[in-house]
Design a protein that fits this description.
By secondary structure, this protein is mainly alpha-helical. It has a single domain, classed as Tetracycline Repressor, domain 2, CATH 1.10.357. About 65% of the residues lie in helices and about 0% in strands. It is built from 12 helices and no strands. Helix 8 runs antiparallel to helix 12. The chain is elongated and about 70 Å long. The N terminus is likely disordered.
Length: about 240
Amino acid sequence: MTTVSFLLTTTHNNAIIYVWQCCHIGGDSIPTQTFLNLEEEKKQRIVDCAFDEFARTDFENAKLSNIIKSAKIPRGSLYQYFENKTDLYKYLMEISANKKLTYLEEDLKNPMDLPFIELFKKMYRGGIAFAVENPKMVSMMKHLLVKKGDIFDQIFKDNLDQAHQIYIGMIDRDKEVGRIRKDIDSKVLAEIVINMTINVSVDQVEDGKDFDFDKMYERITQIMKIFEHGVLQGD
């Protein structure tokens, strides 16, 4: 069982954090023992070159030959480390998911105790912090979201289904205690939140471009106002 799979299957708290990661990996994505036995410097070099390639283009157009050349390894050795391109890609997604987790661990120790809107705020802000500091991982995700395809289904589908159910349950809970209006459609609100957390800052972060962190936070503040107070002025 991978680290990511473990996060999903242990507790509801971990499931909430995991859902935000948007990285449910089907099957066993762990690299071979041969890869794990490599020196750390060589392992990291291969991983860094792989991130460069998948950040450059989408999964279908990414070339293992580019990774092999950049990492300066023999052509056949990569296949001793990973069964195929899909396996390597899933491994990188798992690295990204675990990296994202570090941006949420402290704030979301007990996510089921938080009001749903407060949880949403923390996830969104955590997503921006991750995006600012990890642009290559975000570029890789951006290609995945745009192109979709079979690899998208393998990584996202089960995760999104679970996210819907978890979020709907939390929204219904907040309705019962008076935090959210009872006339709000729980399913629609859950879909909005999932779409926003998946796409957090993806269009705002590009390699080589400056990122206005304060401006993005101001945007979040305005989004939160709309969520909490609506757009119509009361009588």
